[in-house]
């Protein structure tokens, strides 16, 4: 199986005045296509920075990051945005749905930027929402939905452009444990359908449930299994 | 993509109605001023064109000025001058003399006091007047000094209330003598312009007047007809130069072209236009800055939305387009309101000048172009700021 994500001695340094903060410091690992991985670590460990690099929201200061086989280090903003659009689906702790749009419209947004025609967009958004069990809530706005439903809507949006990687940042952090469990179960189903899943979390129970956990501490890899 | 941006823009106004409306006031005033100026200009141009068409553009009239020192005419118009103008001034088709005689006309029991004008045979046609009944003079009338008269429409109506006067006779009493004249034609109604009060004048030939009425008749006005319409503009200047060279005084003769006549009317409009253009420029600047300000506020408020959109694959270009469309839709809304206000204002102004209002599609196009341009220009900086936002930072903002 090919690698969905490869980090080779990836570092991300921030200059804070005279001090250089090494948020990520020479981290190397690979995630195979179709894998389900949790990236864990306490706050300040560099796991959020790691997620930004994998999600093509940021580029490494040094080293290489390959997402879907493409090297992000030398990419311009527009190329990065396009790679993000095609390859990565984001799921956030706070859902990050656009409040003024219905969830169907929310699910269409990645397709708008992919240049998909309106009719096709509507069809695929409907399909994605049906897949997460929100087929009958398409015309609701996010505020009319429960937390769990909102997270499902966000997952539908992440999946709508059929990305290779689903990247989730503390996806259960804002949910009660039962709802959180159902979200994890949904991830499981999505993973079984072939999508690589990377979850960034400090929640041990997620780590326990995942076949592979990448642990970070102080910007370095703690152990890899 | 553009349609999306358009929809987003409308959506964003719905949520910020008051704020959007207030930020538009400058643009509305600016566009209204632009519309007022262009509408007045369009109506003014139409008015001048009307003047040209009504008063033969290719005819220029000249009358003697007065010398301020001696109180005498600056130059005497005589047969020699007529032939000199025809010979020395380029692109002249004809030089037509004209004099006025006061008098009383009678026909049967009806009588009317009238201006009797002695003119060259081609004068009536050259001045753009048309014949309603009968005919105008021909060269043989002039050559043979025939006792014929062409009547203005009002005179014709008062001397011949029962109708067609052509072929009938009228008697003109001029300085104590009576002359029998045959009516050969009636001039169609025409607004008075400069020396000619068309409806209330009876025209006889100049040669008849000199030969049969007053040998010492002085030419009051010369009508100089240009070889072509295009040559008229230059002809006015050439005539002024001719008189200046001949007499050494710019006031020896007055050269009146319909263009000059109309232009003096336009001076007022030009001043108003200039003033309004100033207001337009200033209010568009102020309005534009208002738009820029509101767009900057909007970018700051919607940082997180921008972050989310970027995370979902929006390129900087997508974000820039979104905000540019938003600012130009905003200003174009201002443009529509401004167009309405400005048209109203122009209508009032144009009516007060007694012109007819010309609604031009150009004006609407100008209003749209100006307002869209304002939105794009002043939206550029906020849109660039939004496009440049770091997605990580934008996502983290509240």
Largest β-sheet summary of chain B: 6 strands, mixed, barrel
Show unreliable segments of chain B: none
So, the CATH homologous superfamily of chain A? P-loop containing nucleotide triphosphate hydrolases
Q: How many strand elements of chain A?
A: 10
The top level CATH class name of chain A:
Alpha Beta
Strand content of chain A: 25-35%
| Main sheet makeup of chain A | 6 strands, mixed
Provide the gyration radius of chain A in Å: 17 Å
Describe what you observe in this structure.
- The complex is a heterodimer of chains A (225) and B (398).
- With 225 residues, chain A is an alpha/beta fold.
- Helices cover 35% and strands 30% of the residues of chain A.
- Chain A is built from seven helices and ten strands.
- In chain A, strands 6-7-8-3-9-10 form a six-stranded mixed sheet, sandwiched between helices. Chain A has a four-stranded antiparallel sheet with strand order 2-1-4-5, with helices on one face.
- In chain A, α4 packs across α5 (147-159).
- The longest helix of chain A has 16 residues, at 177-192.
- The model of chain A has no long low-confidence stretch (mean pLDDT 91).
- With 398 residues, chain B is α+β, with helices and mostly antiparallel strands.
- Chain B has two domains: 2-51 and 262-396, no CATH class; 59-261, no CATH class.
- Chain B is 57% helix and 18% strand.
- Chain B has 13 helices and ten strands.
- Chain B has a six-stranded mixed beta barrel.
- Chain B is elongated.
- The model of chain B has no long low-confidence stretch (mean pLDDT 85).
- Classes of the chains: A alpha/beta (225), B alpha+beta (398).
- Chains A and B meet through α2 and α3 of A and α1, α10, α11 and α13 of B.
């Amino acid at each position: 199986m090919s690698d969905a994500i490869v980090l080779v001695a990836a570092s991300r340094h921030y200059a804070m005045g005279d001090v250089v903060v090494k948020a990520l410091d020479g981290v190397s690992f690979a995630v195979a296509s179709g894998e389900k991985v949790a990236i864990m670590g306490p706050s300040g460990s560099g796991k959020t920075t790691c997620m930004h690099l994998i999600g093509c929201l940021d580029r490494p200061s040094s080293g290489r990051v390959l997402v879907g086989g493409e090297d992000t280090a030398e990419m311009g903003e527009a190329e990065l945005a396009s790679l993000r659009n095609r390859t990565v689906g984001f799921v956030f702790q706070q859902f990050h749905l656009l409040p003024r749009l219905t969830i169907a419209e929310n699910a269409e947004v990645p397709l708008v930027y992919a240049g998909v025609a309106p009719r096709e967009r509507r069809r695929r958004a409907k399909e994605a929402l049906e897949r997460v069990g929100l087929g009958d809530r398409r015309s609701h706005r996010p505020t009319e939905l429960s937390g769990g439903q909102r997270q499902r809507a966000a997952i539908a949006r992440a999946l709508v452009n059929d990305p290779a990687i689903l990247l989730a940042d503390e996806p259960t952090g804002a949910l009660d444990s039962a709802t959180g469990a159902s979200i994890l179960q949904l991830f499981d189903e999505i993973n079984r359908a072939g999508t690589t899943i990377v979850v960034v979390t400090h929640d041990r129970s997620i780590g326990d449930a995942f076949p592979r956990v990448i642990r970070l501490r102080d910007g370095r890899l703690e152990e890899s299994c | 993509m553009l349609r999306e941006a358009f929809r987003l823009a409308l959506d964003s106004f719905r949520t910020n109605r008051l704020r959007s409306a207030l930020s538009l006031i400058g643009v509305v005033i600016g566009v209204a001023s632009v519309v007022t100026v262009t509408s007045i200009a369009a109506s003014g141009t139409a008015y001048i064109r009307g003047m040209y068409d009504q008063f033969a553009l290719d005819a220029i009239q000249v009358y003697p000025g007065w010398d301020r020192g001696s109180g005498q005419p600056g130059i005497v118009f005589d047969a020699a001058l007529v032939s000199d103008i025809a010979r020395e001034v380029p692109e002249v088709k004809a030089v037509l003399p004209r004099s006025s005689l006061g008098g009383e006309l009678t026909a049967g029991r009806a009588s009317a006091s009238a201006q009797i004008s002695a003119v060259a045979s081609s004068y009536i046609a050259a001045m753009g007047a048309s014949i309603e009944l009968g005919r105008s003079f021909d060269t043989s009338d002039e050559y043979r000094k025939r006792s014929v008269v062409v009547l203005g429409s009002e005179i014709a109506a008062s001397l011949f209330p029962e109708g067609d006067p052509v072929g009938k006779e009228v008697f003109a009493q001029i300085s104590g003598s009576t002359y029998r004249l045959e009516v050969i034609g009636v001039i169609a109604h025409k607004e008075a312009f400069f020396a000619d009060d068309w409806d209330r004048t009876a025209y006889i030939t100049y040669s008849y007047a000199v030969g049969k009425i007053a040998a010492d008749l002085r030419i009051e006005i010369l009508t100089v007809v240009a070889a072509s319409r295009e040559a008229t503009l230059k002809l006015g200047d050439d005539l002024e130069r001719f008189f200046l060279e001949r007499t050494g005084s710019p006031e020896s003769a007055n050269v009146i072209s319909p263009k000059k006549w109309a232009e003096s009317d336009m001076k007022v409009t030009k001043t108003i236009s200039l003033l309004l253009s100033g207001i337009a420029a200033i209010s568009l600047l102020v309005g534009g800055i208002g738009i820029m300000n509101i767009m900057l506020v909007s970018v700051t408020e919607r940082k997180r939305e921008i972050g989310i959109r970027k995370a979902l694959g929006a390129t900087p270009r997508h974000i820039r387009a979104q905000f540019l469309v938003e600012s130009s839709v905003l200003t174009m809304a201002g443009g529509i309101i401004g167009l309405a206000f400005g048209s109203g204002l122009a209508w009032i102004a144009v009516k007060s000048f007694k012109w007819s209002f010309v609604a031009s599609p150009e004006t609407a196009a100008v209003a749209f172009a100006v307002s869209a341009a304002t939105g794009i220009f002043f939206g550029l900086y906020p849109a660039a700021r939004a496009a440049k936002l770091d997605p990580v930072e934008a996502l983290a903002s509240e």
